[in-house]
Specification:
GO terms for molecular function: cobalamin binding; metal ion binding; methylmalonyl-CoA mutase activity. The protein contains 25 helices and 15 strands. It is an alpha/beta fold. It has two domains: 383 residues, TIM Barrel (Alpha-Beta Barrel); 151 residues, Rossmann fold (3-Layer(aba) Sandwich), CATH 3.40.50. It has a five-stranded parallel β-sheet with strand order 1-10-9-8-7. A five-stranded parallel β-sheet has the order 2-3-4-5-6, with helices on one face. Helix 1 runs parallel beside helix 3 and helix 17 runs antiparallel to helix 18. 52% of the residues are buried. The mean pLDDT is 92.
Amino acid sequence: MTEKAAPGRLPERDRPWLMRTYAGHSSATATNALFRRNLAKGQTGLSVAFDLPTQTGYDPDHDLAAGEVGRVGVPVAHLGDMRALFEGLPLADLNTSMTINAPAMWLLALYGTVAAEQGATLATCAGTTQNDIVKEYLSRGTHIFPPAASLRLTADVIAYTLREMPRWNPVNICSYHLQEAGATPVQEVGFALATAVAVLDAVRDSGQVPPDRMSEVVGRVSFFVNAGVRFVEELAKMRAFGRLWDEITRERYGVTDPRQRRFRYGVQVNSLGLTEAQPENNVQRIVLEMLGVTLSRDARARAVQLPAWNEALGLPRPWDQQWSLRMQQVLAYESDLLEYPDLFDGSYVVTALVDGIVAGAREELATVLGMGGVVAAVETGYLKSALVASLAERRRRMESGADVVVGVNRFTGTEPSPLTEAGAAAVETVDPAVEAVAAVRVREWRSARDTAAVDAALARLRADAATTANLMPATLDCVRAGVTTGEWAGALRQVFGEYRAPTGLSGAAGAGGDASLGAVRERVTATARELGGGRLRLLVGKPGLDGHSNGAEQIAVRARDAGFEVVYQGIRLTTGQIVAAAVEEDVDLVGLSVLSGSHRAAVPAVLAGLRAAGRPDLPVVVGGIIPAADAAELRAAGVARVFTPKDFALTGIVDELVTVIREANGLPASGP
């Protein structure tokens, strides 16, 4: 006799979502060991973090890679590195997500080659390449090529996987970083769906996919979203995403199969919302954020990866990642969440929230499409300006106390935390020698290759790039010949060129009703007068490959509103370029923003450059995720101030910048 389900329960408990941990650092060998440990602890999918040189198409020995190798992910410079990364891991049986965008084609070619070497059939390989280049122009900054060329690469990957890897998700439309850059739920949904439309239109218009197979393309598109601590709103956002995706794919692309119209997404909950102050509070933040993407059965994430409690302090240790994995496992296996139908069907509160987000996102989508699509909206700066303005408003609410952040702007009294009493040992550290070893090994790899085969493969890649041919076959030739990541990207740079995205500062709103800003503005004006006229000039610099520019942009906006003339040239500058700009623009202060952990290399290089240029007197301040011991070293080296995420009051920071300028010029620090 079959046992009936209790009233209100499902007849059979749902299977849990894929549980991942975003992981990678130091080297392919070290990351392989980390993967093995996490899988042994019950993780059910891999999520690969690549370092910034890999993400931006540079080899470990390139000048721009200095200080960045192995910092925020694993360096993969060639086929040998990819072999080491997955050695002993059966790719045919694993679901692998790779957070890679501009060089997604290259990394997928490396992955597929290694899988084939293992004996796997490509048609059975399952996983995802993020491959969403649009959000890189807006928020994360690891783009390489102009938008049209980038969308072509995305379309080529989609067409290739449709033929060869039908279980692979070739693009993962990523709204995660849009939220980090300031997007409201309405903007996050609207802008992400505009990107999805651009990708699908590019595939359709490329002529590589027959019209009767476009529904299969739609069925392999996935999304990667962010979930903040306002988990009820996040739950409604995901239901709104699903409703609009069903509408767009049915009406715009004629997909009739509901299964192919289903909104499929993975999630990492909000890392930038984690705090350096009282970091133990991040545990409950992470749990609440996880609920937003798991509570609603009809809009539940297919895969979840959680940050660790100490990510605002530095790179998490294996134990920290284990703790985050256990949070997922307790919810999935100990609670009764997976035993019930959707808990919110018929809820008038949730329905109203969803309706509001759907209506607003539909308007945003219509605005972008009316401009000619998401590429036009990127190139005109519309999207970037909207995000910078939204983030400025979010910061204003936090600084005013309208939005409470526990331990930061309220309830700041605290006991010493046993979790952080170990100091620098509370996070994973990357041995600086890793970079030197990687540089030596890539040179050894190059010297051991058949040079003629490499040259021929790169020549074919450049030739095909100048046509409309699908670039995956030429890329696979490059993989087999032993071409490196930097060489592959370099060949395409020669054909496509590089792209510097709009900064979004010109259209950004200021601090509005910040009462303290008026006093700082008067101080800026008075200090400029004491120094002989003109306006105080601030150079905001982003050295190296770190593309997380949100903080730098918000400082630039607030300083501009306080009366500074701000020089900001965007991301990915060499230290030489920053020094040259500081001298040529005759600035009063240099502010460096570094979130990737490369501050110990980049900042001393700027200081040395200023001395060599005859400007040792020019004060330098630094902001970023900088451990206390490193901050002390930077100050000892000559840095005037070090700001970290706990310094959240932007107007107060700008006021301190005025003090630094006064001190550097022999004026009373407390004046005027």
